[in-house]
User: Fold DNA polymerase beta from Termitidicoccus mucosus.
Amino acid sequence: MTRNEIADVLNDIAVLLELKGENPFKTRAYQAGARTLEALEEDLGAVIAEGRLGSLKGIGEALAKKITELHETGRLDFYEKLRASIAPGLVEMLEIPGLGAKKIKALHEKLGIDTISALDHACRDGLVAGLAGFGEKTQENILAGIRNREAYGKRHLWWDAAGVAEPILARLRGLPQVRRAEHAGSLRRGLETVGDLDFIAAVRAGEDAAPVADWFAAQPGVQEVTARGVTKASVRFEGGLQADLRIVPEEQFAFALHHFTGSKDHNVQMRQRALARGLSLSEWGLEPAEGEGTVKAKAAAGAAKHIRVASEEELFKALGLAFIPPELREGLGEIAAAEAGKLPRLVGAADLRGVFHNHTTESDGRNTLEEMAAAAQDLGWEYLGIADHSKSSFQARGLDEERLLAQIGRIEKLNTAGKFTVHVFAGTECDILRDGRLDFDDVVLARLDYVVASVHNAFSLDEDAMTARIIRAIENPHVTMLGHLTGRLLLRREGYRVNAAKIIDAAIANGVVIELNANPWRLDMDWRHWRRAAERGLLCSINPDAHETAGLAYVAAGVNAARKGWLEKKHVVNTLPLAKMKAWLRE
Ligand code: DGT
Ligand code: CA
Ligand code: CA
Ligand code: ZN
Assistant:
């Protein structure tokens, strides 16, 4: 396990111990250990090998042993036993905003609550408001949190779903009966949240599908098999994610893949197009529309009129269309564009030459400037933009003027030292204050290569005030780009209220870029705004908002969203090579 992953486990242990009501000193010891690891500037492996772990501040001998075990094996017996000893309902309650370990422990001790449904009842009976430290307002907030959790709980982040789906697809492709297999559904379309996973597999001619369905139903992590047929299986994994598998003969693969990729709207329009050409399109095939019997019955009988297609490309071609990338299949004009030969040449991950908006240990990041630069270089990028928080974000250890200027100096030194081929741009994620002024004055901002301006407080302003606030920031000549337009956290928190159209207009008028924050919880500005905005001249920057080296990989989620927004390379500013990027930033 990496240093940061181990820090996560230690923080988790602290929370679990607090839930158990353990001595606060113990809890704090794990938190202190986590912080020490996060701030460690040397290689953890070397520190362990040289036996120096126990001499670091905040890490005693017992903790050193646990960290070593995690580092070497990726597991910790103590942690697993601890988790098993606590009612899962108590841990689940932590997902309700406003409920920390202390409050959950009080609910458990005073009211015997150890599940969310018991908590729901107790709130509705008014029992929670009466507890010391709770009150009516807290009780209301808890109830709202439970309702949100129900609404959100049905969907999953694309990033998490993709993490589950990828190894399944790889194993599916490895089965001896399977000729071809693909993801389908919203996951393949790159939607920001996913209801369930869909897999399509084709078996070799004459092969039995049943063993493939058996394998799918018996995978590790399956909690329940919710449907089972010879050519179909549906399962639910631990954690609630569900998955469907359909198994088809090879000649139906392209039709099934297209159908189950969707979206529903895209499918309806494709069927209409087929009908207008005297054809009938379904998950089973494409054939002349007239005649008797269902398509399915004819397919089963091997009807001769069946039009053969070996791939989705051929399927689209049979209907007079260019291949439509899955990300565009939302029924939003992609079929007309494919007919007219006007599909966009979508931006791809390989087009990115670098990224802006990344944090380091100087504010709330978990890797140093040098570690971030090394990681960006390993990803093949030519430049890395650093944008730590500004002073008003004190909870994120935002930099004041003095620390910012010192950081600029360190970045200049790093660039001239020539240790990395990657060029580091000095920036800031500057808070937009309540009235739209920026957190630094113009003299300081002028020292930077670029400025990301973001809202991090006073979320409850009404739409007009919030819009005016952001536009005022956009009008500051030092602002290069606007960070996370709405501040939403997918499946967790709605964004603040803004008039996106007005802000897009202001950004275009002032030559300011709007970021597509690629953090899988954000994906903000939403892809649904991008097509029209880019047509009108808005530039995008795909920004990982990385708080550690691993976070740089989030650009993959951002590229998905950009593709869903019909963006091409020319719309995305961080596809510029270094020399052009430098020139562009100077302008
Ligand atoms: P999700 O799972 O809610 O994130 O969204 P999808 O798009 O993955 O939806 P899902 O899993 O219910 O079905 C997969 C695809 O199958 C869907 O995108 C289109 C196709 N499909 C499912 N039901 C229908 C239907 O009633 N009509 C049409 N035209 N297509 C359907
Ligand atoms: Ca699905
Ligand atoms: Ca499904
Ligand atoms: Zn931010």
About this structure: Residues 349-586 form a domain with the TIM Barrel fold (CATH 3.20.20.140). The chain has four domains: 3-152, 156-248, 262-340, 349-586.
